[in-house]
Amino acid sequence: MAANAPRRQPTLDEVAEHAGVSRSVASRALNNAPHVSRAKREAVERAVRQLGYVPNSTARALATRQTGAAALVVSGEDPSIFADPFFARVIVGASAALEEADLHLMLCLAASDRGRKRVAELLRSRGADGVMLMALREDDPLTRMAEEARMPVVFGGRPVGSVPRWYVDVDNVGGARAATEHMVSRGRTRVAAICGRLDTEAGRARYRGYRDGMLAAGLEPLPPWEGDFTEPSGAAAMAALLARHPDVDGVFAASDNMAAGALRTLRTAGRRVPADVAVVGFDDLAVAQIADPPLTTVQQPIEALGREMARMLLALVDGQDPTALLLPTRLVVRSSA
Amino acid sequence: MAANAPRRQPTLDEVAEHAGVSRSVASRALNNAPHVSRAKREAVERAVRQLGYVPNSTARALATRQTGAAALVVSGEDPSIFADPFFARVIVGASAALEEADLHLMLCLAASDRGRKRVAELLRSRGADGVMLMALREDDPLTRMAEEARMPVVFGGRPVGSVPRWYVDVDNVGGARAATEHMVSRGRTRVAAICGRLDTEAGRARYRGYRDGMLAAGLEPLPPWEGDFTEPSGAAAMAALLARHPDVDGVFAASDNMAAGALRTLRTAGRRVPADVAVVGFDDLAVAQIADPPLTTVQQPIEALGREMARMLLALVDGQDPTALLLPTRLVVRSSA
DNA sequence: TCGGGGACTGGGAGCGCTCCCACTGGAAGC
DNA sequence: GCTTCCAGTGGGAGCGCTCCCAGTCCCCGA
């Protein structure tokens, strides 16, 4: 501002005048629309270059009723939930896909009431062309807002208790089941599950997968030991678990962070991993490789999740009717199980 | 879209008509401007409620020449650089500060040429009210773009080779020096530094701090062992370092991730930490607490960095002239040194 | 030769909002 | 009593772009 050239931006009218054409022609030339003679097209291009013209995106947005931006809304009561590298990777994927369509990415952390109110307004004020919604928990007010939105909405993961028309999710059940079966097939019989928050669909689905895996093997599933996906909660859950079931020989943790916490507790408790207790995580974040021992874990395609959400949104904005997507997960075997 | 009410959004004109006032009065009422009688103000509020009116942000932006959005641009040749939790935390801070001023956050990952071109356009098309720029390396084309921007620009960290007028940085030199002095004061004499990329200012400044600390103690600083801030690069650098200087008894790593990598290498090499080799990291990310042993590290106020960048930008947008900021770092002593 | 397409062209009407300004009328000042 | 002032009001002109549409011109077939 203070430091920058205060000279006004040239407008399309000025470009047109400078090129000796009408505003309409200049507009068409700029947008590569037909019905512009070669000579005038070049004249416009020259004028654009000479004047350093850049179209005003706001004016264009008003005229076309398209903002050129998509919003990614991350819900959660604690803003630090977002500091999870998971979201960063979703963003990388979404950003790449949006870039191809020349859309900008708006990020909304709906952690406070204020934040949620702003999201509600965004959803109705046409401040974006569409919205990607993530991390909805039970009774999340955003779920209802989304229904009233005046723009396409894509869910990342399914909200608890409802199946939206358009979502991209990851095969949580299948992954958790594969993790459980892996341990069972290695002879573990007393396998427990440290779950993520059970007011999220991911948390529930992963527990369901664990239970399915146990039942399929004819074993008795244990009730969930609930954490909140973080390392400390995993450590705490593991401690509680050990106290209650000292003979546990396998643990499925619904996140790598919780698995890392479990590892820590097991180490201080003098249990060897995987000799005494096998541990499988979920996510395949960087921490899984760094952990000691390196974690066997369920890999989920996080960037792809973001990318596919963005693509689905793009299709929706484009008037198409894409179908919901369930992305596969796969077990990555390392040393912990 | 397909699923949503296709009923057009009510406009301000309709609100005005419904409330029996002029558009001007309705506009003033909406913006809490003076010169509106109490009666009409209430009439407008009622109409807004009944019609479910939400102002069209694009139209407002066009009229006011303010977009209501600030952009955070993260530069880097590899999009995955952004997956670093560091940026996520910067975003949390920036987002919170912007929320107070009711600005939206646009995120631009300028990793590809395409991405950089889009940023350049954003900077000139008035697509945002201001920009926060991060992670500029030597000769980053974004540095020049920023100079030509038609909007306020705040730097997060200083770019290599130039000191912009408005930036928020962290006391890298002081932190690195404190880390080094901590080890030296504990009797370590053969302290090495595993540096971050030396084409970033943070990488250089942290090495400088290490060197200062060594020189101040009358010790000979070693040349930098360069990594790229990631865990594997730290492990590799540590291996090289051990090969060249088997008698090293202290390591300052310019990031926690590299410190974690160093820890891993030391463990496999059979060196005890901190008994044989002391290790200090930088950042104080979650990994520092989880590491085994927990890392002594230089804490930098990451959320505050984001917050202060946003506040500075806000001040700039507001026509003020804030001064550049250097945020303090502090040593957090745990077990690794 | 004449009418009928196109390919071009540019005027003008928006998109939905803000804001300047001229205008009103009642309260305050002399 | 008559100015002076100002809160309150609404008309209208933008903000910078897109897009519809009427109009021009030229080429072709009949």
Automatic annotation (TrEMBL), chains A, B:
SMART domains: HTH_LACI (SM00354). The keyword DNA-binding applies. Residues 10-64 form the HTH lacI-type domain. Keywords: DNA-binding, Transcription, Transcription regulation. GO terms for molecular function: DNA-binding transcription factor activity; transcription cis-regulatory region binding. Gene3D superfamilies: 3.40.50.2300, lambda repressor-like DNA-binding domains. The keyword Repeat does not apply. This is Transcriptional regulator. It comes from Streptomyces fumanus.
